Amino acid sequence: MRLNKFISESGRCSRRDADDWIAAGRVTVNGRRAEIGDVVDDDDEVRVDGDLVRPRNAPGARPRTYIALHKPVGITCTTEPEVEGNIVDFVDYPARIFPIGRLDKDSQGLILLTDDGDIVNRLLRVENRHEKEYVVEVHRPVTPAFLASMARGVNLGGREITRPCRVSKIGPKVFRIVLTQGLNRQIRRMCEAHGYFVRSLTRVRIVNVGLGHLKPGQWRKLSPAEVAGLLAPPREPAAAPRARTFVPPPSKAARAPRRVGPRAGTKPTGSAAHRDSAGAGARSVGPGRGPGTTARSRRPLR
Question: Which domains does the chain have, with CATH numbers?
Answer without folding.
Answer: 3-52 (3.10.290.10), 131-206 (3.30.70.1560)
